[in-house]
Amino acid sequence: MNKEIELAMSVNSITWACQKRLQLRDGITFTIKDMPYLVDLINPAKKIMNVKKGAQVCLTTTMFIDDIHACYHKKFQQGIMYMMPSVKSVEKLCKVSFDPIFDLNVFIKKRTTCSNATIKTISSRSIGFVGAQPKTVGGSSVKDSDNLRSFPCDRVDRDEVDIMDQDMVYMSKQRLKRSLWKQERNFGSPTYPDYGIDAMYENSDQGKWQIECQSCGKYTCLPETFPQCILLVGGRWRRSCTHCQAEIFVADGSWEHEYPDRREAGYWVDGLLSSYANLDDYMYDYNHATDKQRSEFVRSTLGIATTEAENQLTEQDVLDRCTNQPIDMFSYGETVMGVDVGKTLHVVIGIRTGRDTYDICNVSRVDSFGDLHLLAQKMNVRFCVIDAMPEDHKTKEFAKEEPYAVYRAYCSEHYAAGRPNWDSKQGTVKSNRNEWMDKVHEVVVSKKIRIPRSCPETQLYSVSMTKTAKSVIEHPETGVRKPRWLKLIGSPGDHYYLSTLYFLLAASRVSPRRRDGQVERHTKQKTSFSMGR
To answer: What pTM does this model have?
Structure first.
């Protein structure tokens, strides 16, 4: 073997695997034939790479071959951390994908000094496999993982990042503090828009595989133009140019980046690129799918984040609840208030009009607890639920000084479902987060709530109400599946969704009344309100 090939093998893991005829499983040899889109993904020019992918594109296989190659040739000083959502998924991946490589390839096995379900050591460099499920510390909400804390590394691979605990994703970044390389590779099938790998890709340089048509010279990106790019010709589905309808071939494509100056690399590896893609089956599934099945097809095959209607509100869902009534800035009748606490306080004020119907009279953002007091006074608030955290001390002080009942809310998916636990002595309420997030969603889609007429603030409110979505998460140890509401990335955040939750909690403690009812206002006067932000 000449020196040029040896040098190429030491630098490029794909060249190395092909030249060595690396065995993936008994009788299956690694190849990138008909998969040229993989080449650029193993040596990106940027330290952070985000890849959203479809099924059967051989990306995961290529990533862990690249990890083995890096250890084999001592590319890094420290190790490589390979993260998956749970310990069980780590064990499955090692058994099905990694172990056969070590067993079947003698040249790797000779340099391997340790091979088990959690660590592979080749040429004194290690790949550590970590489940991303957290542990709680001392019964608190603080999360930690001894697996992450004990593994300094030069590269972190996060496989199926969307279904990992996002606090553990952030914690894994800290394992790179002493690294000269600090490489991060995030990849997986997307779930929801603006969440996980979809948000990471959107913030990257957004690489897309553009296929040049050999007939007209124009380019087609398959997932962006699906289903128009897949045509039935002569009884066979084929990839087709969207400009001239001629057949196009994946091998004629190249990566084009929409925002090349961005800090992070991004690649969209859709399932239509794969040589394993059976277009006949794909188009049959797509054309015969229900709405829910089609959403799953779009996610797992095209690599496009989407949600079913029952899992996320749309702006139109919310705006359809607008009335002709403007936002009230003053109220004679008594109201209740929900407040989400952050750098800005997001406030929802209204009334309960029936057993399970509600009118929102005011949605506002205020900058301080003093401003919140003045707003509550103008709106004649008689009951309030306010987010207890993160301003624990200030919310306690606010609750103590207000002339009406204020309960500080703790919402967690770990609290028992059912009736919230109201503690009048402590001035707190504890409720199951998933149950009350469901409640907010249900009152909007079932048209049990009304909001003020459309204006800049209600427009912002409607967008904020779309910034959370429900997924079903499998417990990493028990395998039990349960719902979880996920915060989606992007402005303006889910603050109004949470303040609506607190408003509904507050409203559950008062009797229904008509909006035009006249109730005597509170007369207790406040001589001062010293709390500032």
So the answer is: 0.73
Asked whether 166 and 177 are in contact (CB, 8 A), the reply is no
pLDDT in tens, 315-368: 999 999 999 999 999 999 999 999 999 999 999 999 999 999 999 999 999 999
- Both tokens of 506, joined, read 């507050």
Q: Examine residue 452 and say whether the peptide bond preceding it is cis (omega within 30 degrees of 0).
A: no
Letter string b/e over residues 477-504, b meaning 16 or more CB atoms within 10 A of that residue's CB: eeeeeeeebbebbbeebbbbbbbbbbbb
Instruction: Give the bridge partners for 449, in sequence order.
Output: 358
For 414-449, the three-class secondary structure string (H helix, E strand, C coil) is: CCCCCCCEEECCCCEEEEEHHHHHHHHHHHHHCCCE
Q: Is residue 173 part of a domain?
A: no
The total of other beta-carbon atoms located within 10 Å of residue 325's CB is 14
Q: Do 279 and 360 fall into the same domain? A: no
Instruction: Please check whether residues 334 and 457 belong to one and the same domain.
Output: yes
pLDDT digits (tens, 9 = 90+) for 358-397: 999 999 999 999 999 999 999 999 999 999 988 889 999 9
CATH number at residue 401: 3.30.420.240
